């Protein structure tokens, strides 16, 4: 079966595989950046971020000299900000321990922060240093369906079984094309919902997929709802007041309008900064989902006259048309609302 699988995947890859992706190069630095961006993010979303990133930071040397704030700015909107914090940390290590040359052994790559077994395998295989199997989300889904793996396992037991399967079907020749082909089949054909088995090259390999036996497999985490009051303050010079986020893990280090969990804490902050006398100009609301957490944002937009005597720091104002610090996606959503309301009022 494994011979058929590799032959069918490679034949399919030759005809339909995504060979023109911008990170299809043999530079491990560029492959590393793309692989980290592709964790939890779709190819089409990643492409513009990747191109911008590589233009600004073409190699480890330039990257290692940049500040985390610069990196958070360019990563802004891509989410899962721990990824860029680890890239920053890894670039310092590569600069210090490897003279700014990306390491070329699987074991050394695996030691870098933010890089697990599958990412290290992909980087070293795509760069031509080794021929290794991978196990990303797409490949896991294919293997579970292909071999009808549906017992009750802990995560580590299931991963062990799937790594064995993945290593078993991965050929030693054209490994790079094979793993790219497998990932492409996972994202284009063997999708999470409604796999398109009719056009799948694995169907004739005896794929054991039975929709009914796998429906119960995915245990969803309970949804957590979080209320937030986002206080967007804009002055006469079209500048927005932003503070660096210093708590929590999700958006740590980015800049945001002040965000409160209750009306009381917002009122206290407004009063402490001499802002109590300012009226809300617009109000709106939206939801923002991050994995199993749903944030319900109530957004209050305030316009601040320059002659008002308030206690907000003069250093925290950023031009609305060109915010030069990293901001979370939820703030971009709030600013889209602001622009449409503001433009409605000013036509
Ligand atoms: S035949 Fe269907 S279930 Fe099996 S790998 Fe292909 S798309 Fe997925």
Compose a concise summary of this entry:
The chain is of the alpha+beta class and 347 residues long. The protein has helices spanning 2-16, 28-38, 43-56, 60-64, 68-75, 82-97, 106-111, 117-126, 137-146, 155-169, 175-188, 211-214, 263-272, 329-345, and strands at 224-235, 239-241, 243-244, 255-256, 259-260, 280-290, 293-304, 317-319.
What does this protein look like?
The protein is an alpha+beta fold. It folds into three domains: 1-17 and 134-219, Helix-hairpin-Helix base-excision DNA repair enzymes (C-terminal) (Endonuclease Iii, domain 2, Orthogonal Bundle), CATH 1.10.1670; 27-127, Hypothetical protein, domain 2 (Endonuclease III, domain 1), CATH 1.10.340; 224-345, Nucleoside Triphosphate Pyrophosphohydrolase. It is built from 14 helices and eight strands. The strands form three sheets. It has a four-stranded mixed β-sheet. Strands 2-8 form a two-stranded antiparallel sheet. The radius of gyration is 24 Å and the shape is elongated. The structure holds iron/sulfur cluster.
The fold-level CATH name of the largest domain is Nucleoside Triphosphate Pyrophosphohydrolase
Cα end-to-end separation: 66 Å
Label the overall shape. Answer: elongated
CATH-assigned homologous superfamily of the largest domain: Nucleoside Triphosphate Pyrophosphohydrolase
CATH class (first level) name of the largest domain: Alpha Beta
Query: Which ligands does the model contain, each kind named once?
Result: iron/sulfur cluster
Low-pLDDT windows of residues: none
How many strand segments? 8
Radius of gyration: 24 Å
Approximately how much beta-strand content do the residues carry? 5-15%
Helix content: 40-55%
* Proper CATH architecture of the largest domain: Alpha-Beta Complex
Instruction: Name the helix and strand elements from N-terminus to C-terminus, one letter apiece.
Output: HHHHHHHHHHHHEEEEEHEEEH
Structural domain count: 3
Mean pLDDT comes to: 92
Give the helix tally.
14
What would you call the structural class? alpha+beta
Query: Largest beta sheet, briefly?
Result: 4 strands, mixed
């Amino acid at each position: 079966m494994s011979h058929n699988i590799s032959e069918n995947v490679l034949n399919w890859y030759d005809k339909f595989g995504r060979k023109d992706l911008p990170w299809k190069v043999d530079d491990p630095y560029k492959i590393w950046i793309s692989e980290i961006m592709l964790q939890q993010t779709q190819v089409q979303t990643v492409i513009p971020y990747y191109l911008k990133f590589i233009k600004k930071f073409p190699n480890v040397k330039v990257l290692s000299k940049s500040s985390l704030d610069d990196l958070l700015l360019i990563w802004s909107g891509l989410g899962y900000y721990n990824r860029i914090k680890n890239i920053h940390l890894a670039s310092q290590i590569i600069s210090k321990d490897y003279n700014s040359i990306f390491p070329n052994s699987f074991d050394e790559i695996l030691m870098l922060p933010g890089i697990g077994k599958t990412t290290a395998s992909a980087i070293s295989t795509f760069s031509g240093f080794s021929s290794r199997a991978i196990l990303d989300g797409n490949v896991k889904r294919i293997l579970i369906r292909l071999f009808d793996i549906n017992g009750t396992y802990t995560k580590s037991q299931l991963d062990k079984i799937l790594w064995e399967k993945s290593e078993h079907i991965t050929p030693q020749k054209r490994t790079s094309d094979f793993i790219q082909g497998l990932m492409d089949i996972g994202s284009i054909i063997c999708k999470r919902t409604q796999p398109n088995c009719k056009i799948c090259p694995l169907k004739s390999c005896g794929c054991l997929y039975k929709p009914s036996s796998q429906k119960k497999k995915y245990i969803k985490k309970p949804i957590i709802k979080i209320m937030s009051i986002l206080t967007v303050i804009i002055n006469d010079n079209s500048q927005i007041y932003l503070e660096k986020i210093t708590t929590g893990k999700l958006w740590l280090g980015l800049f945001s309008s002040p965000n409160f969990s209750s009306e009381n804490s917002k009122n206290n902050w407004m009063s402490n900064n001499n802002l109590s006398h300012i009226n809300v100009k617009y109000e709106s609301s939206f939801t923002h989902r991050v994995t199993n957490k749903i944030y319900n944002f109530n957004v209050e937009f305030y316009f601040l006259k320059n002659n008002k005597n308030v206690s907000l720091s003069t250093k925290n104002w950023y031009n609305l048309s060109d915010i030069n610090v990293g901001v979370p996606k939820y703030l971009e959503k709030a600013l889209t609302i602001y622009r449409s309301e503001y433009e409605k009022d000013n036509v």
